[in-house]
Design a protein that fits this description.
eight-stranded mixed β-sheet; three-stranded antiparallel β-sheet; alpha+beta; 389 residues
């Protein structure tokens, strides 16, 4: 178990399941087969595209609420740094931070996600076990990759469900995942019927573990292992995200120590009660992450993961104290990328086609010449929304 730690503990480069080629100054472009006329957008009418985007999001939210027993609640755009409510992702990213004009010294942060806030919200709204909440979350990730599947702007359905202590097991995780996948599958069926798109998702979801895939493909990178799985099965839930292998490399991808449980041993001998929902993208011809989720830490697991990641000082934050003293309930939760899902459902090769974001201006120009127009960008010779002085 000592080898299962997070990024904060190491000082050498690590390999994560990412798509951006940092050695290429134009590494954010879609795969070569999508360029030079190899890709034709489904939508050319911008207003029809906007209608389709709303339809995708509304259908998915409604299906999630029904399948997982969730109720929609409002959510904050920023939280205080001192609260410890911000999600730390991999533990290394910088939050977008500001001070209110009349309150110098007060640091407010735009959340990366609402992983911690949602758990507090279940307590705040007095949500009973077996029921949960979902939010229309908007955030900023200043240190995220900026490429054809990643943006600085994050929009996702952040959801969290109150569970019982006895539900903290891999079977409950799988049952919840199947309910979420059914919501996605039904959404694709509705979208394809309405807009004349060929459905792609299989009815059945495949489960796999990072531990088994490492044994089967020990020399493959995390992204290569995802591609192997998704190309074969089309839709996969990949269990066991976070922590390290004995060689000091990430077992698969990074996770912060204080939301998902990535150390609990499962009956199959692997570790972690979390995972990623991955699809094979027929346009990009690679694995495509739609959602990250998991059973959350209980007090015992929180202390263990904080120690493994060498951040025991987080125990002094308000949120962590509430978890450790039993105020916060046991939960399962995750985030489902809205723009990422729309990119898949509407068969777009770049996330900027379905989201107003910011991307490398040189890449925006190349894409436009190829007939791939990103929302709101590339409209002027000196584009004020793509460049800064």
């Amino acid at each position: 178990i000592c080898s299962i730690i997070c990024n904060r503990c190491i000082n050498k480069p690590i390999t994560m399941a990412c798509t951006l080629d940092r050695t290429n100054p134009l590494g954010g472009l879609p795969p070569k087969h999508c360029m030079g006329g190899g890709y034709t957008p489904v939508f050319t009418d911008r207003l029809l595209l906007e209608e389709a985007l709303l339809f995708c999001k509304t259908q998915l939210e409604d299906n999630l609420k029904e399948n997982v027993n969730l109720v929609r609640v409002s959510a904050p755009l920023f939280v205080t740094r001192a609260s410890g409510f911000n999600d730390n992702l991999n533990g290394t990213e910088r939050p977008a931070t500001f001070e209110p004009r009349d309150f110098p010294g007060v640091h407010l942060e735009v959340p990366f996600s609402l992983a911690k806030w949602k758990r507090w919200a279940l307590h705040y709204y007095k949500v009973e076990a077996g029921r949960g909440i979902v939010t229309d979350f908007r955030g900023l990730r200043c240190d995220d990759d900026v490429d054809f599947t990643h943006s600085l702007y994050v929009d996702q359905f952040d959801w969290e469900k109150h569970i019982k202590q006895e539900d903290r097991n891999v079977e409950y995780l799988k049952t919840t995942v199947l309910a979420i996948y059914k919501a996605l599958y039904d959404t694709e069926q509705a979208v394809c019927k309405k807009y004349g798109i060929e459905p792609y998702l299989p009815e059945e979801l495949t489960f796999a573990t990072s531990d088994d895939m490492i044994k089967e493909h020990p020399h493959a990178t995390p992204k290569e292992r995802e591609n192997i799985l998704c190309k074969k099965h089309k839709a996969v839930f990949f269990i066991g995200i976070g922590g390290m292998k004995e060689d000091g490399q990430l077992r698969h991808d990074g996770r912060a120590p204080d939301y998902d449980d990535w150390v609990t041993e499962r009956p199959d001998g692997g570790h972690g009660l979390n995972g990623d929902l991955l699809l094979w993208n027929p346009i990009l011809k690679q694995s495509f992450e739609i959602s990250s989720m998991g059973i959350r830490v209980n007090p015992e697991v929180l202390l263990k993961q904080l120690d493994l990641c060498n951040v025991p000082e987080r125990k002094q934050f308000v949120w962590h104290k509430m978890l450790l003293d039993g105020t916060l309930p046991q939960t399962i939760g995750g985030g489902i990328g809205q723009s990422r899902t729309c990119q898949f459902l509407l068969r777009a090769c770049h996330i900027g086609e379905v989201q107003h974001g910011w991307y490398n201006p040189k890449e925006v120009d190349i894409l436009k010449k190829d007939g791939i127009n990103l929302l709101g960008l590339g409209e002027f010779d000196a584009d004020p929304s793509a460049k800064s002085s």
